[in-house]
Design a protein that fits this description.
The protein has about 230 residues and is α+β, with helices and mostly antiparallel strands. It has a domain of about 150 residues: Alpha-Beta Plaits (2-Layer Sandwich), CATH 3.30.70. The protein is about 35% helix and about 20% strand. It has seven helices and ten strands. The chain has a five-stranded antiparallel β-sheet, with helices on both faces. The chain has a three-stranded antiparallel β-sheet with strand order 2-1-10, with no helix packed on it. A two-stranded antiparallel ribbon has the order 7-8. A hairpin with a 6-residue loop joins strand 4 and strand 5. Helix 1 packs antiparallel against helix 5. It is elongated, with a radius of gyration of 21 Å. The relative contact order is 0.22. The N terminus is likely disordered.
Length: about 230
């Protein structure tokens, strides 16, 4: 099992990271990096969590998600590994709220407790429910009775997101937030269906990916990559 950023004995980098090539519209090439949050490359983790900060901040602001909630998994309710189990009561809770508040919007992240290897969920939503209701629903779904809810303005929410998902914090070896588990990535972000931002749906035209080993993984062209560059440069 690999969790909390322990990378010893396992290569969780995508096999093509640093080996494939990006070709610019000008024809120039450069290494293609996967940008995954669980990649062993710091530059990829920085890119992933930097994008996540922007994503959460923009979703909160764009959709007016100014109700903040925290759901902490009660150890006495947990069955098996907590990082596996937490997704089940959270899924039940989302369905439960959707029945009572059709069309509710939310974005939530799975985080590691600052003092121990234990998961909790932070989120923002446009639906207001009293803390007692959140507690009753979370408990009924198997999560326990440890919750917190408050109303914040969008500026405060955006500030919170930036602080909680500070890039430097998540690039540390001990802050991969359970995103690698048994060699697989664990989902750490959820949002309402269809809730997308304009900048997520666009890409710069003219770029393409050369899906072959153009580089050796350390930024140096392979013999094949050098021949390709000379033939197409």
């Amino acid at each position: 099992m690999v969790r909390s950023g322990s990378l010893e004995g396992i290569d969780i980098r995508s096999p093509y990271c640093g080996r494939w090539a990006f070709r610019r519209p000008t024809g120039a090439i450069e290494p293609f990096y996967c940008g995954h949050g669980s990649c062993e490359r710091q530059r990829c983790r920085r890119a992933f969590y930097g994008r996540r900060v922007r994503l959460l901040s923009d979703l909160v602001t764009t959709h007016g998600l100014i109700r903040f909630f925290t759901l902490t998994l009660d150890p006495s309710h947990c069955v098996g590994d907590p990082w596996d189990y937490v997704a089940h009561p959270w899924s039940k809770l989302r369905k439960r709220i959707a029945k009572r508040h059709p069309g509710w919007k939310y974005v939530a992240v799975l985080e590691r407790h600052k003092d121990r290897d234990w998961p909790h969920i932070h989120g923002f939503t446009d639906v207001w429910m009293a803390k007692a209701d959140w507690t009753d629903h979370w408990d009924a779904c198997g999560g326990g009775r440890i919750t917190w809810v408050e109303r914040v303005d969008t500026a405060a929410a955006t500030t919170y997101v930036s602080k909680q998902l500070d890039v430097a914090r998540y690039c540390g070896k001990d802050q991969l937030v359970g995103s690698v588990h048994a060699g697989k990535r664990v989902r750490t972000l959820w949002r309402s269906k269809g809730m997308r931002l304009d900048w997520e749906l666009t890409s710069e035209p003219g770029w393409c990916i050369l899906k072959t080993d153009m580089y050796d993984g350390d930024g140096h062209l392979t013999p094949y990559g050098e021949r390709w560059r000379q033939a197409n440069g």
